[in-house]
Amino acid sequence: MRKQYDFSAGKKGVVIASPGKTRITIMLDDDIIEYFRATAEAEGVGYQTMINAALRSALQGVRSKAKDDRPLTVAVLRKVIREELHAT
Question: Taking the model in full, what pTM does it have?
Answer without folding.
Answer: 0.56
